[in-house]
Structures are given as C-alpha cells and as structure tokens.
Design brief:
Blueprint lengths: L8 H21 L1 H19 L4 H31 L5 H30 L1
Helix pairs in contact: 1-2, 2-3, 3-4
C-alpha cells in the first residue's frame, strides 16, 4: 500500500477549506472579530493610501492583521474552554483572561504603530 502523501494538492485544498470555515465561524459567532474586521476594512485601505515608506506600510498592515490573528486564537481558546463546561473554574477564567490580554496587547501595538507612523 502506497503511503498517504501529506503534501498533496488535496491536503492544501482541504486546509484552505478548513481555514475559510474557521474565518466564517469567527465572523458568525464572535462579535469582537466582526468589529475588528470592520476596523481592518477601514485601516487597510488607509495604509495603502498613505504616503509612507514600504517598511512603514508593511508595519501598518501587519499590525492590523496581527490583531485579527490573535483574536482568532483567543476565540479558539474560549471555544475550547466553553466546550469543557459552563461551570466557573479558576483555570478556565485564567485561560480566557490571558487570551483577552493577548488581544489587548496587539491592539496597543497597532495603536502605537499607527501613532508613530501616521501622526508623529
């Protein structure tokens, strides 16, 4: 029997489909992700419109995308914790709080990046 290739084109298509399903689920079920998508839809075109260097543009775009990435990870953590059970538990609360802190730090980084490049 021929071993299953883990690098096949089929695997790439499946991974892409799963990723789209994840994005759709986050958009459907996570209000924070929807709000951040709206902000990204405003900020990303502005980043391309601004008269900044290529490196500055990359930083502006990357900082916005990073917020979305960390929000997705935070939402995944919250879904796992909620799947375990609805009862309050110190570790469950800590996991959710740490995920939230990660999102907050990326938002602060984005704000600082935009402030330094665009306004200072």
């Amino acid at each position: 029997m021929k071993p299953k290739s883990t690098h096949s084109l089929k695997r790439v298509f499946s991974a892409t489909r799963y990723s789209w399903q994840g994005l759709n689920a986050a958009f459907k079920h996570e209000a924070a992700f929807r709000e951040e998508i709206i902000l990204a839809a405003i900020m990303l075109p502005i980043a391309f419109w601004l008269d900044v260097t290529q490196v500055e543009r990359i930083l502006l775009v990357a900082s916005v995308i990073l917020v979305l990435v960390v929000e997705l990870i935070n939402s995944a953590i919250e879904a796992i914790v909620d799947r375990i059970g609805p009862e309050l538990h110190e570790l469950s609360g800590r996991a959710k709080d740490i995920g939230s802190a990660a999102v907050m730090l990326t938002m602060l980084l984005t704000g600082y990046t935009w402030l330094e490049i665009v306004f200072l």
